[in-house]
Amino acid sequence: MNKYLRKSALLGIALVSLLASACSNNGKNSTSDSTTVKSSAADSSVKTGLPDSVKPSGQAPEWGKDIRPQMAAVIEQLGSYSDKPIPQLPPVEARKNHTPTDAVMDIMKKYNIPMPPTTVDTIGKEIPVAGGTIHLKIYTPKSTGPYPVIVYYHGGGFVIANINVYNASSQMLAEKMGAVVISVGYRLAPENKFPTAHNDAFAAYQWAVNNASSLHGDARKIALVGESAGGNLAVNTAIMARDKKIQLPVGIVAVYPIAGADMNTESYQKYANAKPLDKPMMMWFSKTYLNNMAEAKDPRINLVAANLKGLPPTTIINAELDPLQTDGANLADKLKAAGVSTDHKVFDGVTHEFFGMGALVPEALEAEKFAISQLQKAFKGK
C-alpha cells in the first residue's frame, strides 16, 4: 500500500479529490460551486511528508483500539476544534460545526501535502422539484465525451452537510471514472421533513435521465452513489425508478448506508461512542428528519424491510469502526436474498466518513479504487 501511495501520479489523483472541500467553510452551507483553494504554508514544526508520515499525537480511542494511524489523526484533529456535540445543538447551529473534511484539509496543510489543480469543470444548476427547487453541482471531465453519468447523494443524516462538504467524493468519482457526476443538494430537515429528501433524490435522478445528453453524458449509463444518508437515498431512488417503471440505474454504490430502524444492532452497541458518528447523533438525525419515530420503520428508512427485488447490481462499502456497519451487512444479506447481484466490503481500522479521504488514509484510497472498479463493471454491462 505504501508503495502505491508513493507513486506521484496516483497520489496526485488522490490528493485532488480533496481540493475543493475547503469550500465547506467549516461545514456551513454554500451555494458556490467554485473549486478554488488557497494553500497555506505548513507548520514549520511538522516534518513534510507523504500520507504515511501522518500520525496522531495521542493514544487510540477506547472505542477503536485498532484504528489506523492516519484515520486516528483525522479524528484527533476533528476533536481539537472542541465543537459542541451535534445532538446538543439546534440544526442551524449544528451545520456550522467543523467537519471531517475540515480536519483532512488542516492535516494536509500541516504536512504541506500539495494539491494539484482539478481536472474537471464544475457548474451549478437549480432544478424544479415538488414544492420548490434544489441545487445541483455538476462535474464534467475535460476530455471528450460522451461520458457515463453518476448521480451522487451526500451524507449528513438528512439534516446537516451539503454538496461542498462532500465535494471530495464527487470530484474523485468524476476524475477517476471520467464521468459526469451530478451531486444533489436535496433539501434538509427540520425545514423539510421526511420524505422530502427522498423525493428530491428521485427528482434529481429523473432530471439526469432526461438531461444526460445535454451534459455530454450517455443516458444509457447512469449509476447511483451515496454516502450514509445518501447511501439510503441511492437505494431508495432505484426502488422508486423500478416502481414507477422508468429507466433503472445500471448500478448502485452505497457507502455505509442508513438501512435499518434498529439502533441496538451489534455495531450500534460496539461503536456507540465512535467518532465522527455515534449513536446519539443517529438518534438526533432520526428525530430531526422524521415526523414521528414510528416512521423509522417505513421501508424507505428501514431498507432491510423494503422490496428489493429487481434492483441493479449493488455494492455496499462499510467502515469497521462505525455504528452503521451492521446496517450495511444486513442490507447486503437482504439484497442477496432478493436475487440482486451484491458485493459487500468492510474496511478495517477506519470510521464513518473515511470514504473520500484517499489523500491521507490508505484504506480510503483502497475503498475508492474498489468503488471505481464496481462502477466500471456496471457501465461495461451497458
TrEMBL record:
Top-rank lineage group of the source organism: Bacteria
A GO cellular-component term linked to this record: cytosol
Keyword Metal-binding listed: no
Gene Ontology terms for molecular function: sterol ester esterase activity; triacylglycerol lipase activity
Domain Alpha/beta hydrolase fold-3: 150-355
Listed GO biological process terms: triglyceride catabolic process
Keyword line: Hydrolase, Signal
Keyword Signal applies: yes
Residue ranges with Polar residues bias: 25-47
Descriptive protein name: Alpha/beta hydrolase
Organism: Mucilaginibacter ginkgonis
